[in-house]
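Appendix B. Chain record.
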Amino acid sequence: MDVQWLKSSFSDQPEGNCLELAACAGAILMRESDDPGVVVTTTPAKLRAFLAGAKAGEFDGAA
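Structure tokens predicted for this chain:
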């Protein structure tokens, strides 16, 4: 299966480390460019919920 990985233009850092996303068979795949063998799979709805929470500051105290 040919997966087309996408990354944000904001991720164009000299270190080359960035999050890459791909859509495949109704799922969202995520990986780090510096370790492409590790892939995390989620659903579009769960990713939207996570991004909404991050934008709302729900995880600000986690780091």
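Further analysis of this model is presented in Appendix C.
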